[in-house]
Fold:
Amino acid sequence: MENKEELKNVIAVENVSMHFNMATEKVDSLRDYLTKALSRKLFFDDFVAVDNVSFNVKKGEVFGIVGTNGSGKSTLLKMIAGVLEPSKGKIYTHGTMAPLIELGAGFDGELTGRENIYLNGALLGYSKEFLDEKFKSIVDFAEMWKFLDMPLKNYSSGMTARIAFAIATAVKPDILIADEILAVGDFLFQQKCEQRIKELMEGGTTVLIVSHSIDQIEHLCDRVLWIEKGKQIMVGKTFEVCNEYRNLQNSPDSSSTSPKLQVISEEKCSICGNLSQFRNEPGMTYKTEAYCSKCGSLLRTADLIRFYLSEEFPFAESIGDIEEQLSKMNIMYCGHNDVLSSYLKRFSGFLSLNQNRLHDCVILLDNEELPIAEKESIDLIIMQRVLSFVKNPEGLLSKVYELLKPGGTLLLTVPVFEQKKTKKRTEKDQKVVLNNHSLVTEWGFDTKEILHDLGFTVKMKKMHEWYNKEDITDIDRSYKKFIETHPYFYFKFNSWAIIAKKEEEKE
Structure:
């Protein structure tokens, strides 16, 4: 039997509304404003940001709020946090609260990161003694020791987000309010934030989350509230609300300004450095995978570079942030034409294996000689969307190992097929794959083993999972049938991002 204390509502929102007065005409100066106001010639419209919303959140529950831009989500959170007072209705909260609504609010750009930890902590109600005690853990979590005494004005937005989140979660609150917190910073830091939130949840903290990412809401939340234009549309179990929300986004009558289902994530692109939406078209065929809305980079390319930057250049937010280092490197890119390849062409040490057709590139990669560079002459090799097509992957990777300098790096992506080993292909198999282009063959969990055997040190990370396991085709089940009847069928898969380092030269 469940403990009554565990079922206690720690947040109760009862018939809450928020009204704002909006001037009906533009006023260019304070003088005009006062003149019109005193003469009663200034008129206002009543704007309803939140309209009669009611819900309860139980202790230890993870509660999500979804809705299109301008639907009133952030306004609702600010009322719950006590930043705004509702025009109508009542809000009851029980326990200590950590509101992550505007990360970095109250920071001073002229002060160092160290000084801002104490400043922001004081604004959150933490004593100096408490901050002294927690200081090391805050900086460790933010991974900011190197930049601790640098003025905050020189920080990137991602670096500021690291410190702000680390401070706000330095103590386990009873209630954590997070407004798009998982959309700031780099990909790995977002994962770190998500893990911290999960730890708080396990410790009994009640969590309120606003996110544009339905995937995040689905795997984190117990229940969800959906609001549109301030009105409560639906509140209930996560899968029920999210399914209805998705249906609206896919309907022909939905607003063109509303986020569509094809938006997979909204985050900083690690290629171009812009805050971008990564979109796909419904169906997710070969030619309609998720691309950055700003530069057009494939999502899995951006994920691969993000993983690389986090390991080699932890505070770089885009590949543009390491241009000086790249200019000193010999870089080889193997794969289909891609935004990243176009970017790297500006550097003198760039060698491209890009061909007009994937077929030609793969044939070249499978060539016994691969006469493109001298042995131990390349600093960085990037293999994007290629390895799963080649006939002899071990042979190719052996050649790659020979081309790399001691300490050189191989970056690659491969499909994830759980509990499957890499397929050994015949000439006939490869011909079928290449001629049908959009067919991809399995590449299994033995990738790490193959690279280790060649002498690489390997780090692997599963990237954005835009497919659920049940959506991924079991290629072994009907492989021949699909080849015969669906020549352009694309087998859905998630991907590994892999960093393989060649050993340094021994002295």
About this structure: The first strand starts at residue 9 and ends at 23. Residues 16 and 507 are 71 Å apart (CA to CA). Residues 106-172 form one domain. Confidence is low (pLDDT under 50) at residues 1-7, 250-261, 281-288.
